[in-house]
Specification:
Blueprint lengths: L3 H12 L5 H8 L3 H8 L8 H10 L4 H9 L17 H4 L6 H6 L6 E4 L5 E4 L1 H6 L9 H7 L1 H6 L3 H16 L6 H13 L1 H8 L9 E7 L3 E11 L7 E6 L5 H14 L27
Amino acid sequence: MIHRARHRSIVLRDLKRGLRREEVAILAGISTDYYVRLEQGRDRSPSTQVLVAIAQALNLDRDAADYMISLTKTQQAPWSGRARPRRASEQDRLPSGIRELIDRWNDTPAWVQNRFFDVLAANALATALSPNYAPGSNLLSAAFLDPSERERRRDWEKMTREGVATLRALAGPDVEDPRLAQLVGKLSVRSDYFRGLWALHEVTHHKGHVTRLRHPQIGDLELRSHKLAISEGDGLTLVVLHPEPGSRSAELLQLLGNLSASPTATTPEPEGTQSTGPENPSPLHSDS
């Protein structure tokens, strides 16, 4: 377990980005000695005004500044208005009706996840896109440890880096949460790449983006991803994927829906889609 004060000192050291302590202190309007005490975790209750000044001195973006401030404050961090997340035991209660809602979306992949990327519910089309989009899976573990998931993601490097930064941001000050410790511990032991990303202390929050997938049956898709907070479930997020209307990805997603609804049907070769079998392996790195 990392003590919150020690964790904060680690973050301050990593965020200096080449600035000397004296330079950060001058820019923030505080003494060098006081900044050193903060960096070393010897002062555990700096004012919000001081933390904001340090964030500005370090030229942090909003997500990084809120994250740094959340490590010392139990109230809401300034600028974002986001409240401190509750513990996992309170988050994992899926509100009644959400599962029924997404199950009715036959042409829209959707699932519900908590702040640790544990999947709590998913509809059939999401699971057809990837077997890891299913209840009981953890999307971060799958991304780093499941080779088949890496092959499906044409944007694997970008996705994993953003995923780790999002995990750190959503965990906030709850650095001693048992679920967080279990997940980070497992991935740190089994993935050098994860361990390196976690050590960067990058933070970001859920943002809409384009997900680039390579499906073994239907080929390459580009789907817009939107993450919507579920107001009835603290810390739960509804993730929805959808293609550009009238696009090739829309046609392929409809085809995948038909295939998943008829599991005994023979898989047709989508028009204009090249085989992605073993004789034509998918690259791990592609345009993002």
